[in-house]
Specification:
alpha+beta, Uridine Diphospho-n-acetylenolpyruvylglucosamine Reductase, domain 2, Uridine Diphospho-n-acetylenolpyruvylglucosamine Reductase, domain 3, five-stranded antiparallel beta sheet, 17 helices, about 30% helix, about 20% strand, FAD, oxidoreductase activity
């Protein structure tokens, strides 16, 4: 901070925007500070939370924070679990009031666009779209915020056909550190438009997104739960790898989640939660493209003809905002045996780690995202080159209740992640890039992108944020 104190900064903002600045102890402050998926972040207690009501207010607030060199964080939905990445002991900009949702009249035979404020979660957007038979490539859970999801790329139910969700954004409204508010689209500020589709909060504060929609009255999908025996795991991983190789059915979607808690998994095996979806009509036994997952013996099967809105309401184990949590992640290529080895070693390490002695309520999960051709290759921020091969992104997620064991559990997770990464590196299948929405602070996000992409991102940041406010004063994954 410069020559002005944090107290003076908050007083300045409070005078200019009396209904926007929230201080500790007020009911609205406590409500805002409770909106974190990782409860450890709610313990940070910013000196002030600033909740702008418009893009113009956001820009004016940024100008004050920039001029005074005040550190601040930005929060959309609060799902980012990395400690202190979406909060700050100084100032938190909460985008929760930027919650408008508007269907824009179509200007062609294409379906209408949808414009929504950055403070939304995906649930209310689906509530607006579903009665019109419209879908959008958004989060697979209602409670995920739109901001971090889209600015880090975003994996939707339609990833195989549409690629990263951010590629369906046609315009961003952005408040810059200078206080200016600009639009970024294919014609206006096109370099910023490119950079925001995966470049995160490194250029400004996005206050609104405009996205393409598609007509889809009904789809098929749901969650299948299976006991993760060795045979079941082998079947699941064979099907997972088959889904990103060769000619894939672009209407199919899968997210493989496994989790373990000694009480919930009394038999000793982890449980699989197979999140399946298909953007089209299917036979009674399910889509052929997901046959391998449908043949797995399930203890519960929630697949059915449904809608995007209903699918996003399915319980997928780890989406609640009532616990502490962490992410670590890595990416790799290879075959089903590699994934089976990772699965087997992860749960052996977790069971021997003392996590459940530290907190018996803890849950350890391992999640896989198939990064097929539409996600892996191309010229966008999130791609690894025009000829990049498909790969898997794997996420370690641990959740627990007691704040007293947070440091210990983070250390355990770091050790497990390092062990698994080394295993993949030694096997020659490690991919040095991690999707930011499932990554931890030690994982390779921007550092794993091609140098040409990283250099271009830095150049764009230099043009729109010449003082480096979003590199120096704002936490998060930074441009390397």
């Amino acid at each position: 901070m410069g020559d002005i104190s944090l107290t003076q900064v908050l007083e300045t903002l409070g005078k200019a925007f009396p209904h926007t600045v929230l201080r500790p102890g007020s009911p609205r402050y406590e409500e805002e500070n409770g909106k974190f998926w990782n409860r450890d972040n709610a313990d940070v207690r910013p000196a002030g939370i600033v909740a702008p009501e418009s893009a113009a207010e956001t820009g004016a607030i940024l100008k004050v924070l920039s001029d005074t060199k005040t550190h601040f964080a930005i929060r959309s939905g609060g799902y980012m679990p990395v400690p202190k990445y979406n909060t700050s002991p100084a100032v938190l900009i909460s985008l929760s009031r930027l919650s408008s949702i508007e269907l824009l009249p179509p200007t062609s035979p294409s379906p209408p666009l949808v414009k929504f404020g950055a403070g939304n979660t995906w649930g209310p957007i689906y509530d607006v779209l579903s009665p019109h038979g419209l879908v959008v490539p958004g989060g697979r859970s209602r409670d995920v915020g739109v901001g971090g999801f889209l600015l880090h790329g975003g994996v939707s139910h339609f990833y195989a056909s549409l690629g990263w969700a951010c590629e369906s954004v046609v315009e961003f409204d952005v408040a810059l550190a200078s206080g200016d508010v600009v639009a970024a689209n294919a014609s206006l500020n096109a370099d910023l438009f490119w950079a925001l589709k995966g470049g995160s909060a490194n250029f400004g504060v996005v206050t609104a997104f405009t996205m393409r929609t598609a007509k889809l009255e009904k789809m098929w999908g749901g969650v299948r739960v299976a006991v993760g025996t060795g045979e079941t795991a082998s079947r699941v991983f064979t099907a997972l790898h088959a889904g990103i190789q060769g000619d894939v059915d672009e209407k199919a979607h899968v997210e493989v989640i496994s989790f373990y808690n000694p009480t919930a998994c009394a038999g000793g095996d982890a449980l699989f939660v197979l999140s399946l979806a298909y953007a089209g009509e299917v036979e009674k036994e399910g889509p052929a493209a997901l046959k391998g997952f449908m043949e797995v013996e399930a203890v519960n099967d929630g697949t059915r003809v449904t809608t995007q809105r209903e699918l996003a309401a399915d319980d997928k184990v780890n989406v609640g905002y009532d616990k502490r949590g962490l992410f670590r992640a890595f990416s790799y290529r290879g075959g089903p045996q590699v994934t089976l080895d990772i699965y087997t070693e992860y749960y052996a390490l977790v069971k021997a780690s003392g996590v459940f002695d530290a907190d018996p309520s803890a849950m350890a999960a391992l999640l896989w995202l198939p990064v097929g051709q539409k996600l892996a290759s191309g010229t966008g921020v999130m791609t690894l080159g025009e000829d990049a091969e498909p790969y898997l992104s794997c996420n370690i997620c641990i959740r627990w209740s007691s704040p007293s064991v947070s440091e210990r559990i983070h250390a355990i997770a770091d050790g497990i992640a390092d062990t698994l990464k080394k295993k993949l590196q030694d096997a020659g299948v490690f991919v040095p890039f991690t999707y930011g929405n499932i990554a931890g602070v030690q994982d390779m996000t921007f550092a794993g992108l091609p140098e040409t992409t990283r250099r271009r991102l830095r150049e764009v940041a230099g043009r729109y944020d010449p003082e480096g406010v979003f590199q120096k004063q704002v936490p998060g994954f930074k441009l390397v």
